[in-house]
Amino acid sequence: MDKKILDPFRDKSLTGLVGIVIGSDSDLEIMKEATKTLEEFGIGYELNIISAHRTPEKAHEYASSAEDRGIEVIIAAAGGAAHLAGVIASWTSLPVIGVPMQTSVLDGLDSLLSMMQMPSGVPVATVAIGKAGAKNSAILTAQILGVKYPPIKAKVKKYKQEMTKAVEEKNKKLNTK
Ligand code: RP5
User: Fold this and answer.
1) Nearest partner of 85 among 100, 70, 68, judged by Cα
2) What is the pLDDT at residue 8?
3) Bridge partners, 21 (sequence order)
């Protein structure tokens, strides 16, 4: 596809393969939170700009060929009408995680609802709007891939322990003033 950033088939230090699709380059800045987090987990990904409405044929081609190309999880981020994640999910049996973008006049609420309120039979695992969702999409991906790849599972466990420790340290600091 258009914008391959990492090729985990060549970079042996990376495990798993995630397909990230964003509806527009205006989604990129927020979605860097997802790519950064995947890199921290050592997970390989590719990133493409594909729109359900502006490049519908490409959306079909991408989603229907993803599994055969070795993709294991798809993260789809879009604002506006946000049908990207649902359209992608309709063309693949891979798990699809949707990240609602805060790019419309409705501040992402439209994206959240349209991603989440999928009809029965075509799920999109929808995370929070914006930056938190972008990060959570990567963590959820790590949790899914962790079932297959023990090193990713170990990193998820370590990540959670560190998060707990950081909060405990902040609490300790607050209460020792
Ligand atoms: C959606 O519309 C994109 O995912 C983006 O969040 C939003 C606005 O896109 P641009 O008009 O900035 O390209 O398709």
Assistant:
1) 100
2) 55
3) 48, 76
Q: How far apart are CA 166 and CA 68, in angstroms?
A: 41
Contact 144, 115 (CB under 8 A): no
Q: How far lies 140's CA from each of 2, 149, 155, 169, in Å?
A: 25, 14, 12, 25
| Angle at alpha carbon of residue 122, lines to 55 and 59, rounded to 5° | 15
Which residues, in sequence order, are bridge partners of residue 77? 22, 99
| Rounded alpha-carbon distances, angstroms, from residue 6 to 20, 34, 154 | 11, 14, 22
Q: Residue 10: is its pLDDT beyond 90?
A: no
Output the pLDDT for position 177: 72
Ligand 1 site, CB within 6 A: 23-24, 26-27, 51, 78-80, 101, 103
Answer for the pair 19, 65: CB distance below 8 angstroms, yes or no: no
Q: Considering the entire predicted model, what is its pTM?
A: 0.91
Q: Whose CA is nearest to atom 3 of ligand 1?
A: 23
